[in-house]
Design goal:
The chain is an alpha/beta fold and 294 residues long. It is built from 9 helices and 8 strands.
Amino acid sequence: MKYTSFIFAGLMACLGSCAQDDSAKKVTYPAGYTPQIDVVYTRGPGWQQKMDLYLAPKERGPVPIVINIHGGGWNHGAKESQTGFNSFFKAGFAVANIEYRLTPQAKAPAAVEDARCALIYIIKNAKELNVDVNKIVIMGGSAGAHLALMAGLLGNDHRFDGNCAGVENIKVAAIIDKYGITDVNDWAYGPHITSKSAIDWLGDKAKDETFIKSVSPMSYVNKNNPPVFIVHGDADPIVPYEESVELHKKLEEAGVKTVFMTVPGGKHGEFPAAQHSEMNKAIMKFLKELQIAR
């Protein structure tokens, strides 16, 4: 099946669970994998955030890992809604499925801080977790994609690492961005959509242009970014398709490897279930080309 770096005509599905259903579901993992559920990866006064880990057999040696971040406009959603990691398991990946502080609990930049801390936790504990620190992939959908982009594009910019300081060599091997928010100001006040979720998340910083830029992935595009796989439906009524167009353009201009898959008529994560396997193959092809997936 043919696709270009910009149009993947007629094909789209989510890698992992697209739906922002907060109901608990069960992750199916291969024999030999070890689950570690509700591992605390960051904490503060009166709060803690957890991740679920699915670790590959130690006899394989260090393996790639995907850190998955659920969506939900920063104000709802749960890690338990995310279950579809089979393509990663088949490729030999470990999985870290994370939660983060939502708007009712903490305003921006708390969710960004948590995404960074999840990444740093994996790096700090890579040996114990049997993870190859050179093969960390971070992935999300919608607001989760925004957090994946922030965590990965920040690199060694430590401005949001106050809760988990101490790691200097922070990097990811690739970012998977599924219809993510790339420009928070555009999502909050732009010509296409006015998002109450964005304004609520920004809180008392909702009119602070400097702060809004600081929590927008678009602000961190540079030649040192990791490769980015972007997918977006061109009829998305929630997050403007144009945001992904602009991100892809800026990444290309910076010389960063990027693949952009447009879904003609695609809504916000509402893609035909029959296309899931095609989507998985495309993303795995991207990761194989980067020599991350086997």
